[in-house]
């Protein structure tokens, strides 16, 4: 049962018991519940209390409390709403975050509860229902926002219009949408959602809709009708753009004493230790004010602090320009923590003792015992009946592994894994670039380039994913089923690394080796070679220890019967001739410890996965050269806007979704977006920089992405930009475009000829051919007797099969097949001559800032694999420290490394 004390309102007895919104309004100094049918109708003369309860798949419930103050709300009702927000927080066990919302300045999170919009109504809320009859009143609204929309009623007159915003004119028979010429497509699309809402809720679905575009008048009767309502057309004056200089916000910390006085504290360097658990504090960041309440503060102290803050923002004249957020100790937001030095990166969610009864009651309502939370779903989210191919990256070449070898990977190498599986009415392709934890930088660069080139070759616009050893997604293991990861490597890059004096750790049957065994079933199990020392052991796992004399299987005391079964199967998979000695934890013989260099301490506690929050959706933007991230709250499939690049953060993996009308034209660029997102500590605390990054293209979303939405495949195939799509649906004239007819997103965007083919051929690593002179003649062989493959040869090997040996297994290296040939000698020589004389070629010259991968004003229509070629000779020398000719004499891996360091690759 929830905790209830004498000073808490009885309206909160059942608050938060179910997910979703609970809304109350202050009426005659009492809280009155608002019916669900009236959730989007807020009166400007009233104050409201809104509770949003979210029950994640794992972890405790999450609560957000908002108190909304209309522009005409009196001071008494405003004060009562803030007090009731504190009482509601206490009823929930002091584990909520509270927000103060002002009409017209609402937060993105608050507005996201009311899809498609919240339209304030003049007057005061009354719980008594009445009928309103009379003539339909014409109203005009302005709409602002691209993900959530602020709707505000404005006077019905020409002077209200401008060129920046969206306007809606609602008449008895027709709704007009007027789009300012400087508004964005997304803002126009959001405006149509409001039009749809008005049509359904105020017209019963029976009225006409007209879209008016600012500045266009020819041949449209709706335009004449619209302007006639204003007495005829007259030009809208253009406002001069305001120049706003960025001013870094000043940050000030105040202690709020028991009398409600704000006492300034030293703010040169804020530290977590400055916040005492029995006090309340205010952190003033200009545009946002945080109120921090210690765990041991009483409800009366919190009330005093709240009144003091309300008085402060009123006296300072900041009621309408500063967001106010109330945080309890242990529930600090990442942005709040970012203002303090050395705040721990990860904070475990804390359930206060006074809230445990409430939490227990909620879990009991869901059918769980609070001591035994539901286990995470381990069912694979992908069809595992598909076909797999694996290539090892050998610098500029790919080496196709045999069926027997493709589940035996090495930490010093990089691999491309292609998985073709049944999708929505057709076969889908997934490409993984697996980067071993011991691999060298040039192999990583080549792996991602190879993966992008292969993706470019597949007509169905495949999903690509960059993954690091040790951070593999669960479905990667489901696809490869029985996987063994060895130390060391076989690639030329790794072997060059060993020549620099490093110790070769490559696995050998003649050396001591220790494997950790893990998995969920015989069709999903892994053996990972770890350091052969005692500290690598863990009581939660089983291990295989290979020595020169014998083989041991070690069974951890906290491992399960399932783990023991996998252990026996994995021994047979590693080497069916082994006859292991089974050892249980605590009964190890001396020679067991001797093989591990002596007995030492190792983890003996049960490994428990931390709570995983439900996914968060972010919009990724580049503005003025800066990388911008904006969270989209309470998202749905409709928030995947075709003009956008969006990122779905699932904590253990992230997905970069690319709209077909977005500015991103390559999968490599999308991966770069994902990496930059991970580098933003403020937003993604606790996320590893090596978390898997998937790139998904609009119209080709795989089931392991769509599972995070209530997905409607028919919405994904409507033609046009977001505004055109919604207008067609609204008018019942939508046209669909089948997924296989969509223009695929190319992995590497470059100059194209009119028929759609590239004008510049590229190699399998996604870059231009080497600029080194190539002798003519078909018998030419580069060093190592290997040919540098063209894109066509890669495609041929991918989709026409590979040579087999007598055992029927594929063994031939992809790029060294005798049947693989370069283009004709004349074409090859011509291309090489063109590429090797970059300085003399008549290329357009662009500044470095426009050629960078992430640029505020990127150049279009160039070969993105050779950005450096478009630099002037002077700027090239300045950035690279050498002439272009010297640069082209470097090995390809060194060129790429230099280009990556300069954000040109």
Give a written overview of the molecule:
The chain is of the alpha+beta class and 905 residues long. Helices cover 22% and strands 21% of the residues. The strands form four sheets. A ten-stranded mixed beta sheet has the order 2-1-3-4-5-15-14-13-11-12. It is globular.
Oligomer state equals single chain
Q: Tell me what portion of residues adopts beta-strand conformation.
A: 15-25%
Mean pLDDT: 80
Count of extended strands: 32
- Low-pLDDT parts are 1-6, 347-359, 362-377, 737-744, 746-841
> Roughly how many Å is the radius of gyration?
32 Å
Instruction: Give the helix tally.
Output: 21
Shape: globular
The largest sheet has its strands arranged as 2-1-3-4-5-15-14-13-11-12
Helix residue percentage: 10-25%
Q: Structural class, from helix and strand content?
A: alpha+beta
The separation of the N and C termini measures 59 Å
Largest sheet, described in full? 10 strands, mixed
Keywords:
905 residues; alpha+beta; ten-stranded mixed beta sheet; 21 helices; disordered N terminus
Give a brief rundown of this model.
The chain is α+β, with helices and mostly antiparallel strands and 905 residues long. It has a 10-stranded mixed sheet. A 10-stranded mixed sheet has the order 17-16-19-20-21-32-31-30-28-29, sandwiched between helices. Strands 18-22-24-23-25-26-27 form a 7-stranded mixed sheet.
Q: How would you summarize the topology of this molecule?
A:
Layout: E1 20-27, E2 30-33, E3 47-54, E4 62-69, H1 75-91, E5 96-102, H2 108-111, E6 139-144, E7 150-154, E8 166-170, E9 174-179, H3 185-202, E10 208-213, H4 221-228, E11 252-256, E12 262-264, E13 280-284, E14 288-293, H5 299-315, E15 323-328, H6 334-338, H7 356-365, E16 387-394, E17 397-400, E18 408-410, E19 414-422, E20 427-435, H8 441-457, E21 463-468, H9 474-480, E22 482-486, H10 492-498, E23 513-521, E24 524-530, E25 542-546, E26 551-555, H11 561-574, E27 581-584, H12 590-595, E28 616-623, E29 626-632, E30 645-649, E31 654-658, H13 667-678, E32 693-697, H14 703-706, H15 722-730, H16 791-799, H17 825-836, H18 848-851, H19 873-880, H20 884-888, H21 892-901
């Amino acid at each position: 049962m929830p905790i209830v004390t004498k000073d808490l309102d009885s309206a909160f007895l059942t608050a938060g018991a179910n997910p979703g919104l609970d809304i109350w309004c202050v009426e005659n100094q009492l809280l009155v519940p608002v019916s669900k049918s009236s959730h989007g109708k807020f009166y400007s003369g009233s104050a409201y209390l809104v509770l949003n309860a979210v029950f994640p798949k794992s972890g405790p419930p999450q609560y957000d409390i908002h108190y909304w103050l209309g522009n005409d709300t009196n001071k008494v009702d405003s004060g009562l709403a803030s007090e009731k927000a504190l009482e509601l927080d206490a009823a929930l066990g002091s584990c909520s975050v509270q927000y103060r919302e002002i009409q017209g300045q609402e937060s993105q999170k608050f507005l996201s509860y009311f899809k498609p919009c919240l339209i304030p109504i003049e007057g005061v809320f009354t719980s008594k229902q009445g009928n309103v009859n009379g003539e339909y009143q014409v109203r005009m609204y302005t709409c602002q926002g691209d993900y959530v929309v602020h709707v505000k009623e404005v006077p019905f007159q020409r002077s209200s219009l401008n060129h920046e915003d969206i306007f809606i004119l609602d008449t008895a028979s027709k709704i007009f949408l007027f789009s300012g010429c400087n508004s964005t497509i997304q803002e126009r699309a959001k405006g149509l959602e409001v039009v749809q809402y008005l049509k359904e809720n105020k017209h019963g679905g029976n009225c006409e809709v007209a879209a008016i575009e600012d500045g266009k008048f020819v041949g449209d009767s709706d335009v004449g009708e619209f302007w006639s309502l204003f007495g005829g057309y007259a030009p809208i004056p253009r406002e001069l753009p305001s120049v706003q200089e960025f001013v870094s916000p000043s940050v000030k910390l105040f202690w709020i004493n028991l009398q409600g006085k704000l006492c300034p504290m030293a703010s040169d360097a804020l530290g977590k230790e400055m916040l005492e658990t029995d006090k309340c504090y205010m952190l003033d960041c200009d545009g946002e004010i945080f109120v921090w309440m210690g765990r041991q503060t009483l409800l009366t102290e919190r009330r005093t602090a709240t009144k003091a803050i309300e008085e402060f923002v009123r006296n300072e004249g900041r009621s309408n320009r500063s967001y106010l957020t109330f945080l309890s100790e242990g529930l600090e937001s990442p942005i709040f923590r970012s203002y303090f030095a050395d705040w721990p990166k990860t904070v475990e969610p804390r359930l206060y003792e006074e809230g445990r009864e409430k939490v227990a009651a909620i879990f009991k309502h869901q059918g769980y015992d609070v001591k035994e939370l539901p286990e995470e779903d381990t069912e694979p989210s992908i069809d595992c009946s598909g076909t797999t191919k694996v290539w090892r990256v050998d610098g500029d070449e790919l080496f196709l592994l045999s069926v027997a070898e493709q589940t035996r990977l090495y930490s010093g190498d990089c691999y491309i894994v292609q998985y073709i599986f049944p999708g929505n009415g057709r076969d889908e392709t997934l490409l993984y670039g697996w980067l071993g934890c011991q691999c060298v930088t040039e192999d990583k660069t080549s792996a991602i380039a190879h993966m992008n080139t292969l993706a470019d070759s597949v007509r169905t616009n495949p999903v690509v994913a960059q993954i690091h050893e040790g951070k593999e997604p669960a479905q990667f293991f489901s696809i490869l089923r029985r996987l063994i990861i060895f130390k060391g490597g076989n690639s030329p890059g790794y072997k060059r690394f060993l020549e620099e004096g490093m110790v070769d750790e490559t696995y050998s049957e003649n050396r001591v080796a220790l494997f950790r065994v893990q998995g969920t079933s015989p069709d999903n199990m892994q053996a990972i070679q770890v350091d052969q020392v005692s500290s690598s052991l863990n009581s939660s796992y089983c291990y295989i220890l290979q020595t020169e004399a014998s083989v041991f299987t070690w069974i951890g005391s906290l491992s399960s019967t399932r783990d023991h079964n996998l252990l026996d199967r994995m021994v047979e998979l590693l080497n069916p001739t082994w006859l292991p000695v089974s050892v249980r934890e605590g009964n190890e013989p001396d020679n067991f410890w001797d093989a591990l260099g002596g007995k030492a301490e190792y983890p003996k506690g049960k490994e428990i996965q931390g709570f995983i929050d439900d996914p968060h959706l972010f919009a990724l933007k580049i503005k003025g050269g800066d990388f911008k991230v904006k969270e989209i709250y309470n998202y749905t499939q409709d928030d995947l806007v075709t003009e956008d690049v969006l990122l779905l953060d699932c904590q253990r993996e992230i997905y970069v979704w690319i709209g077909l009308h977005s500015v991103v034209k390559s999968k490599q660029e999308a991966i770069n977006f994902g990496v930059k997102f991970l580098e933003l500590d403020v937003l993604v605390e606790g996320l590893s920089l090596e978390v898997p990054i998937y790139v998904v293209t609009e119209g080709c979303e795989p089931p392991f992405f769509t599972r995070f939405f209530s997905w409607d495949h028919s919405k994904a195939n409507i033609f046009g930009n977001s505004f055109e799509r919604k207008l067609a649906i609204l008018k019942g004239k939508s046209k669909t475009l089948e997924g296989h007819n969509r223009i695929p997103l190319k992995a590497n965007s470059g100059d194209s000829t009119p028929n759609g083919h590239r004008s510049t051929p590229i190699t399998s690593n996604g870059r231009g051919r080497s600029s080194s002179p190539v002798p003519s003649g078909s018998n030419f062989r580069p060093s190592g007797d290997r040919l540098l493959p063209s894109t066509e040869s890669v495609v041929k090997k991918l989709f026409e099969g590979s040579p087999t040996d007598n055992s029927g297994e594929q063994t031939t290296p992809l790029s060294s097949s005798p049947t693989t040939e370069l283009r004709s000698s004349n074409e090859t020589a011509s291309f090489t001559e063109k590429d090797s004389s970059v300085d003399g070629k008549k290329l357009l010259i662009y500044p470095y800032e426009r050629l960078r991968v992430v640029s505020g004003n990127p150049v279009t229509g160039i070969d993105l694999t050779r950005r450096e070629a478009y630099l002037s000779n002077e700027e090239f020398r300045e950035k690279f420290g050498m002439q272009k000719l010297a640069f082209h004499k470097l090995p390809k891996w060194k060129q790429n490394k230099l280009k990556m360091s300069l954000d040109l690759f």
